[in-house]
Amino acid sequence: MDQVLTGSLVLTVFQGIFIITVTVLSLSWLLIKLKKYYADINTGSHEASEVEGPPALLEHYKFQQSECRQKMQEEHTSKALFYKENILKPQEEAKRLKKENEYIKIFGPMWQTEGSVLGGEEDKLSENGDVTAGRKAARNRKVLEKINRKVADEAAIAAAAKQKQKRIITLPVEPDVDQEAVISVILRTPIGTICQRRFHDSDKIQCLLDFITTQGFSQRRYAISTSYPRMLLNNPDSLLSDYKFGKRVTLNIEEKE
């Protein structure tokens, strides 16, 4: 009788231990799943590739991803156009007016006129004995013509460069946070704001320059640099992996000198 009771007691103890072990393992598994789920929510990486379910559900998530990226691209393009119309063009116009005013202060308003043919008037002035005044006027006209040609050449060069640089910016697809060889780039802007995006370490510096352009900071007027030691990332063909940034890096957007 005692042996039966002892055996029953041992069996009960083992059953209790087994139930406790299963419970602990189940809670541990559930805790791991919850941590992963909340981590995905916090990092914003709850992408469609992580969703388990039927193919139709996966396709739905991929479609939503594509629409979201297209909307972001349109917003970036809109910001770039706003910057060009409201900041860049007024700055260029102000520089042109400043240069024009400087020419007027130095040479007077006559530098804007068409001028006259050289030679004829100087000969008449020489016949009347006013040789010095005639030569001085001729020199002034030559200087003004040279300035006009220089201004026209600079305008033509600027227009050609502007036309050459007109291209449609297409950013590479932003990788997931848990992918291999991904760098999270944080960019501090001159106006105190921060913009950030993920890139593959095989992407070129040109991708960063295109990204800041979509944020309203034209790569013709702004550059990207490291904080310390300060180094300009001025080679658009170099790769992000060349700089050994690691998984995360903070860079600066600064106006070119």
Structure overview:
By secondary structure, the protein is an alpha+beta fold. Among the domains are: 88 residues, no CATH class; 74 residues, Phosphatidylinositol 3-kinase Catalytic Subunit, Chain A, domain 1 (Ubiquitin-like (UB roll)). 58% of the residues lie in helices and 11% in strands. The protein is built from 5 helices and 4 strands; from the N terminus they run H-H-H-H-E-E-H-E-E. The chain has a 4-stranded mixed sheet, with helices on one face. Strand 1 and strand 2 form a beta hairpin. Helix 3 runs antiparallel to helix 4. It is rod-shaped. The N and C termini lie far apart (98 Å). This is UBX domain-containing protein. InterPro entries: Ubiquitin-like_domsf (IPR029071), UBX_dom (IPR001012), UBX_domain-protein (IPR050730).
